[in-house]
Amino acid sequence: MVEEDSYAKAIDVFVEATATRDPERRATLLSRAVAADVVFWGPLGRGVGREAVEDFITEVVHGHPSGPGRLVRTTRVDAPGEWARFGWRYETATGDTILSGMDVVHVTARGDIDEIIVFAGSLT
After folding, report:
1. The domain 2-120 is classified under which CATH number: 3.10.20.30, 3.10.450.50, 3.30.450.40, 1.10.10.10?
2. Which parts of the sequence belong to the SnoaL-like domain (predicted)?
3. Which of 28, 35, 67, 68 could form a disulfide with 114 if both were Cys (CB 3.0 to 4.6 A apart)?
């Protein structure tokens, strides 16, 4: 349970970073939650470093054709060891769900995320 709580803190700071439109605040939040050399596996491919995560947030989350949206964690954090997963949804400013999925993250002993794997959409 302790792992899940500490992992949830890092994940929630990451989710908060996706919601902010202020680049300085986003960078500060990401520096608290994500390792500088994070490996990010997103729907558009693989990127390395916080800049890759910031670019994804700017281009995909805030640049979505439906307008800027936000990522919302929809499940508890399940952490069987150093890996954790959580459900999410991407919603419009009015709260309509555009997409949902699950992320799997690797959390270091320092408590920051050094790998993020995004699974968008259902497996049906």
Report:
1. 3.10.450.50
2. 14-114
3. 35
